[in-house]
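User: quick one, sequence for these tokens?
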């Protein structure tokens, strides 16, 4: 599948918010966003911003101990964190959300990569300083054009 990849440097939480806003404007029902990066890199922070820009008014918290949280925004918003699945690789109950009606954000997506479609948006976050991050954003298929709009 064709894909587009960009490496984007940001220097602040605010810049993360603006990136989330730009992406949120281009997502719709059934969109899937995978997030990766070390603990504290900003996966949940990005998810909170994304949710807010998608009309979620409830506070989005890290679902690390619950696997899945469902919010209501402009469309349903599913926040999944598979960190605790460790290397088990698959969780069949997740399919309803991954292939569901809402927008699905998955923290630590590489753990369930085998269960995910090739056509999705992924953001890998590297910590380079206290507030600086390098984001590798990759979009396959219909997500290619989203990546084209990001960065410089
Ligand atoms: N540019 C940035 N983007 C995202 N988070 C940042 C940035 N700079 C500093 N932070 C801080 O880093 C922390 C990221 O935590 P969190 O989003 O929970 O990470 P993760 O979910 O990846 O473990 C937050 O305290 C956030 O305020
Ligand atoms: Mg998190």
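Assistant:
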């Amino acid at each position: 599948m064709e894909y587009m990849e960009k490496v984007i440097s940001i220097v602040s939480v605010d810049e993360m918010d603006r990136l989330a806003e730009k992406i949120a404007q281009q997502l719709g029902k059934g969109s899937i966003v995978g997030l990766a990066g070390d603990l504290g890199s900003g996966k949940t922070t990005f998810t909170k911003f994304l949710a807010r820009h998608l009309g979620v008014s409830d506070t989005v918290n890290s679902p690390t101990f619950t696997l899945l949280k469902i919010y209501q925004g402009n469309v349903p918003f599913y926040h999944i964190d598979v960190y605790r699945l460790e290397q088990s690789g698959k969780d069949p109950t997740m399919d309803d959300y991954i292939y569901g009606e809402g927008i699905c954000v998955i923290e630590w997506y590489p753990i369930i990569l085998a269960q995910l479609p090739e056509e999705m948006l992924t953001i890998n976050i590297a910590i380079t300083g206290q507030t600086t991050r390098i984001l590798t954003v990759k979009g396959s298929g219909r997500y290619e054009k989203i990546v084209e709009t990001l960065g410089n």
